[in-house]
Amino acid sequence: MKSAQSFRLYHPREVAEALGLAPSTLRIYAARFQDLLSPDARPARPDDGRRARHRRYTSDDVVVLQRAKALLDAGLTYDAVSRQIKGDGDPIAIQWQTTVSSSVRRRRSAADAAAHAAVPSIDSEDILTRANAAVAAAIGPVLQSIEERLATLDERLTVQQEAILDLASRIDVLRSRLDESDDSTPTRPGGPSVERRRSWLTHILGND
Hints:
This protein is mainly alpha-helical.
């Protein structure tokens, strides 16, 4: 007589954690190996007349799923795993398929390792140094051209300032001579006054 533990039903979350599977993977297993599981563990079909209900797994279901997972990890297909568990699989064919699958996995691992070794390691400091050098090489001539233009403008401004100072000096000389002329030359009758002549000169020289 079986004990109550043998007839205990397990929640899908408990089975997934026990087998180290994601809940979605457990649902795939339940669908692919439903012929090997108890009715409570099989997905409900819309045409079988049963109401929607949550799946539950017996201890035997857990053993079947654990064996299926081990065979899948060994490289067998779902169909080969199903035949193996049912006892219909050809041991030689299954052994050959397992060997081929293991060989393929080893080759893939070797190819991944070779590809990883072929990729040079990335040195962030070296990349930053090269980027700065490239930017300096591209901007350097532009900055030099700007500096040369600024130097030319500075020379022109200096010339203009010297010209302005020379013009101001000449204006001072003219004013001085005008003042001396006003003091020594009497105003002609009917001629312009001293203030008016000074106003004309100031207007001509552009100095208010």
